[in-house]
Each structure stands twice: as C-alpha cells, then as structure tokens.
Amino acid sequence: MPAKKITANDVISKRLRAIRADNDITQAKIAKRLNMAQTAVSRWERQFGTMNAEQIVTYCRIIGANPEEIFAEYCKERSIRR
C-alpha cells in the first residue's frame, strides 16, 4: 500500500500548533493578531482549513517560530515520503 500523500498543511499545521501550545499562546490571541475568528485558527490547526504563505509567516512571528524552519520541515518530510 502506498504511503499517504503528505501535504504542506499536514506538516505545517501540526508544527505550528505544537509550538503555539509549548509557548502557552492561545488560539484567541493568534486570531486577534491576525484579525480573524478563533474558529479559523482552530480549523487551520485541525487541518480543515488552509493558510496562505503570508498568514503562515505572520502566525510564525506571533508564536516566535522561524517560518523558514517550518517550511524546511515540510520539505524534509515530503522527501522522506517519496
């Protein structure tokens, strides 16, 4: 059986959620800084919605993550799955 196709959303949303939680930052705080509803942030983290690159970079800045590292993790995971 072939491996499940991994998407950027799979890797990025899980990593951002983990970093946010490790830093005790709430979804509500992220939503306020991004000028959107908390439910939108929740949907991203549960992989029911997608973020554009600008939103990912802003989200990273809010939680103190390096966007380049987040994208690199996706690229690494994707290359492993091929």
Task: Write a structural description.
With 82 residues, the protein is mainly alpha-helical. Helix content is 70%, strand content 0%. α1 packs across α5 and α2 packs across α3 (38-45). The radius of gyration is 13 Å and the shape is globular. 16% of the residues are buried. The model has no long low-confidence stretch (mean pLDDT 85).
Query: Distance N terminus to C terminus?
Result: 13 Å
Fraction in beta strands: under 5%
Unreliable stretches covering 5 or more consecutive residues: none
Order of helices and strands: HHHHH
Rounded Rg: 13 Å
Number of helices: 5
Number of separate strands? 0
Main beta-sheet annotation: none
Average per-residue pLDDT, rounded, comes to 85
**Percentage of residues in helical conformation:** 55-70%
The structural class is mainly alpha
Shape label: globular
